[in-house]
Amino acid sequence: MDEKTLPPEMDPYEFILENIDSVPHLEALVLLWNSRPAGWTQDELASRLYVPQQKVADILYDLLRVGLIVKSDETTVRYRYLAASEGQDRLMTQVDAVYRRDLVRISTMIHSKASPAIRDFARAFRFTKERE
């Protein structure tokens, strides 16, 4: 995710709605944000998030795909928050704060969204329309 992808002063609720597929996705992102610059292994994240290894692998893949985290190329692979810009860091500060303050509201908002597969399908049409 680069500066062009994130509008200046993006609303943290809008960011969550558009970019976060599940509560474990948000938990992983916030955990990586709060422990920066330290990294976590997939096993450590699975243990901390209380979700199966395969689910953590899917979460990490999704967060890598949108450019919010990076994967180390060390012998022991670690995942870290990617500080792509000052604007993104400010947004993550707000995301962390609203998640702590409005846990129920954020969780309900995430659970009420369409499934990730449906959103990906809709995004494909949105990108096609924008190119025309």
Class from secondary-structure proportions: mainly alpha
> Uncertain spans, ≥5 residues at pLDDT below 50?
none
The proportion of strand residues reads under 5%
Order of helices and strands: HHHHEEHHH
Please work out how many helical segments DSSP would assign.
7
SSE topology sketch:
Layout: H1 12-19, H2 23-34, H3 42-49, H4 53-65, E1 69-71, E2 79-81, H5 86-101, H6 103-111, H7 116-131
Antiparallel strand pairs: 1-2
Q: Can you offer a commentary on this structure?
A:
The chain has 132 residues and is mainly α. It has 7 helices and 2 strands; from the N terminus they run H-H-H-H-E-E-H-H-H. It has a two-stranded antiparallel ribbon with strand order 1-2. A hairpin with a 7-residue loop joins strand 1 and strand 2 (79-81). Helix 3 packs across helix 4 (53-65). It is globular and about 40 Å long. The relative contact order is 0.18.
Concise structural overview:
Helix content is 62%, strand content 5%.
Descriptors for this entry?
132 residues, mainly alpha, two-stranded antiparallel sheet, 7 helices, 62% helix, 5% strand, globular
